[in-house]
Amino acid sequence: MNTLKDNTKYVFFSKEEIDSQFNQLLVESEGVESYTELEELMRKCFYNKVFFAQKFGSSMGTIKVYRVTTCYDGFDPLKVSSFSYPPNPKRGRANLAGHPVFYCSFNPTISLHEMKDSLSPDNEYFVSVWEMSFSNETLAHPILYNSITGCSDFHMAGLAQHQMDRFLSDVALGPVTDQEKASLRHLLTKLGDLFTLPSENHYNLTSAYAHSLLYEAKKKGYDFRILMYPSVTSGHKGANLAIHPDFVNSNMMVFKGVTKIKVKDASEEGMSVTFSDIGRATGTGEVEWFHPAISSVEIAYHDFELHTDDGLVTRGFDALNMKVCGSEQTVAMLFEEVFEKEKTKLPRQEANIDEFSFELMQYQNEATTTQEFIPGVKVETNEGVRDIAKLVAYIRYTETYQKSSCYL
Questions:
Q1: Is the pTM here over 0.85, yes or no?
Q2: How is the chain split into domains, by residue range?
Q3: Is 227 exposed, middle or buried (0-12, 13-18, 19+ CB in 10 A)?
Q4: Hey, which residues does 371 pair with through a beta bridge?
């Protein structure tokens, strides 16, 4: 039995004993839904063991986190609360049913990857950005170290290893042997593995553990507000956070904005999305929306192409100055008339989600627009009268966000 500086007693076990206790916990908790029963099973496994707590204070500065929301019954895009934690959630990896936590990540790609099976190019998503600051000291419980992050070389793994090494060298542990440190490292590795199992089979256990930490530990004098664990869907290369609603509702966490997106492409390297509307906080719990509109267009007329139905191609001003049969229009006038109706269909701003600023900025885009025609629109060419098949133009255009009178 060892003693911490605050006289708390703790016990070291061999790796074999820890493995046996965890295996027994997994077996005995299978199918158990009662929090009271799960708490008792965890108490037997975790009693008198040391776990990692991290203090966040004002020296941390401001930290941005990102959360993804999809439309649901009662969703109101004009309310900040619609992008926060659900008031009556089903059970998740880090929450019991009916006990909300705010799930988020340190970058938007990780948050989108957490959407799992619902991540589809056909779906719209709302990615909100929030800022955390720590005017009051806040306790967090990182479970970032596991059997994968403990022996990998990517950034998140390096952070997990650094935290573990720092924890094991903390003087608060008192005089401990290398064997006892190895025991503690193994214990925390097993806990980390439990929290990142790919299936939902052990959500009963992880949700109970998170609940005991975020909801129940305060009764014992430990006011944990944040739980951190690796993102399974990103291959453990990012971290998820589960945050207690009291912290979200405090002045230490502020909603900054939201953007509506569609996913174009998703991979482990990144995620390409198209952006549409941006919402900004009004300071009154409401969201003010801005819609992207094309404010200026520059057409590269020297690269303009007119294609006829028999394969004839005429370029530049030779094509633009041709007469459209049966009208007073030139091809230039015809193109501008058709393009004016179609320009709202130009491709929207596309980028890696991690590089998006969430600010109301102007964006410069480029595209090749093709206006196709059904047979019957004829033009006078040097080879005689021909049917226009299509008009092709390379354009540069500017998108500017403009305030919307209503949400679109």
A1: no
A2: 2-285, 293-401
A3: buried
A4: 391
